[in-house]
Design a protein that fits this description.
It holds the Pfam family Bac_luciferase. Helices cover 48% and strands 16% of the residues. The chain contains 15 helices and 12 strands. An 8-stranded parallel beta barrel has the order 1-2-3-5-8-9-10-12, surrounded by 4 helices. A two-stranded antiparallel ribbon has the order 6-7. Strand 4, helix 4 and strand 5 form a beta-alpha-beta unit. The mean pLDDT is 93.
Length: 361
Amino acid sequence: MLKFGIQNGLNVARAGFSEDQILTACLLADRVGYNSIWYMDHSNVPQWTKATVLDPWVMLSAIAATTQNVELGTCVTDAIRRHPSNIALAAITLDRISKGRGTLGIGAGEAQNLKEFNIPFDNPVSKWEEQLQVIKLLYESSPDHTVNFKGKYYELNQACLQAKPIRKPHPPTYMAAGGQRTLQMTGKYGDGWLPIGYTPELFEDHAATITKSMKENGRTKEEQENFQYALDIDVYFSEDAEESWAKMKEAVKVSLFKPEVLRVHNLKSIEGFDFKKYFTEYSMSNQDWIVKMREGATTIPDAIARSSVAVGTPDDVIPVFERFVKAGVNHFVIRFWGSNYFGSIDKFASKVMPHLKGNTR
């Protein structure tokens, strides 16, 4: 089954929508047939001083009370700023409030949400892996079944939570992975994968790594068949696709500027650019890194960058989604950009979704 969701991400934050406007958009998405609603987890986006950045777990609880059908998840929360017990309990609470629609989207984190708050960003992937193990243990815990864990970063000593999720065996875990180690972890621990800033070729390449990892880690046939190969993708409806693309292509190339894109598309590395430092030191308030990033991103060819986003009329948008379906996507999480946010939600549901669902039966 092909699924579609909307993300309340940088698009919504940048627009400065009020809480009531966000809830209205989510109610619309629920009524016109979307399958999921997601909310970003950022501390701030200081490059946009008028943006409104809200807590995802609180907002998702409000969205749960407003909607009836859609799955609800974080896109994504990070494993650095919160203890795994907090994350597990939040996911369970959301699942209970929504009557079984809660989902945990989680990643290793990024310097953007940490540096200005003096939160260490050391060994993020190792910490994330331990968090996943701890969260699963706590999902299964109770006063009659306390759990223990002794890792390098986290410890549990006869610990338990005292609420059970509605979804069985627990709320699904969607993992934001984009490197070889985290992709293998996704195949081992995840129920879904939710990357952002991908071309179809990169999606195919990384999906194959996850599929291989699932088999190597003995995941059941049912787990493999039900796995959600999701994608966070940007959509910009416009009557003039070329004009709109010219305005947004720099930002799109920046989102694609990462080693795996360069590898898959046989693009040369940027001399003198240290990706490790980029990912561990970069924050939105660091102008030096922003300049370096933009300079490096300009080397990505337009054709490659444009394949990662959907711009133009519904007829322009449909082929982009069809290509990603062929690459293995079965759950699209859409960030709508442009002035008519509510109209875009409705237009995609009425003009694009029926075509795509009809072609995948």
